[in-house]
Amino acid sequence: MVEISEVQVRQAETAAVEQERVRAEASAVLEAHPYSEMAALKLTEESRLAAQLRANAREMREAWEAQLTEEKRRASRPELEKAAAAEMKAARAEMSGLEKGLIEALKVAQEALVGVVSAAEAYTEAAGRHADVLAAAGLDYREGETGGERDVLGGARLKADGREYVPVASGSLMAWLVLRVIEARVSQYHHLNGVLSGTARAAGQQVPRAVDAVPEPRRVKRPEAPALRVGAAPTLMDR
């Protein structure tokens, strides 16, 4: 960052004042010769330069004053830090512990999601395998309580003792889990609700018995969303 000196500020202001004097002289010449194009052009040019120099001087002074304020703040910071030493120590200790807890929670959640993917893949593979075997044995999915088939896209459909099984996308299961936790622990108005709801809905269509068997997270009561005034734009609670 380029430092500005008081001398530079005063020089810029002096140049602005001098240019204003030149502009005033050009204005006087035009008043004496109101039909002179040269005088009019001269006044226009001097006025433009005067405005530019005034702006430059103003910006330079503002920058210099901001520089002085920052220098004072830096000079007083050691004293401020010394006065807040106990709070800084407490903050470091608490935040360090909480950061470690956050890291461990993320590790556990990551492994859990890996388990969801593995379980979904095993489920989908088994449904396809059994569907193919039953279809090859002549047991059509649409007849009776047991059977299998493939749709035009290759997706398997299995029926065993009246229960239906179809492939499940691990992404839809993860979206369903994330959305469920967000709605219970953060806010039902969270912007991810709209982002994930379509993908999450597929989990309920693919494995309805599985999602119904998972208990909901304990809900945390949050303040209600503020009522929208007529003409006011909606605000999403993103916390």
Put the structure in a nutshell:
By secondary structure, this protein is mostly helical.
Provide an overview of this structure.
This protein is 68% helix and 5% strand. It is mostly helical and 239 residues long. The protein has a three-stranded antiparallel β-sheet with strand order 1-2-3, with helices on one face. β2 and β3 (163-165) form a beta hairpin. It is elongated, with a radius of gyration of 37 Å. The two termini are 36 Å apart.
Strand content: 5-15%
| Helix fraction by DSSP (H/I, runs of at least 4) | 55-70%
Number of strands: 3
Specify the structural class.
mainly alpha
Return residue spans where pLDDT drops below 50 for at least 5 consecutive residues.
228-239
Q: Largest beta sheet, briefly?
A: 3 strands, antiparallel
Mean pLDDT across residues: 88
Radius of gyration in whole Å, from Cα? 37 Å
Comma- or semicolon-separated keywords:
6 helices; disordered C terminus; mainly alpha; 239 residues; single chain; three-stranded antiparallel sheet; elongated
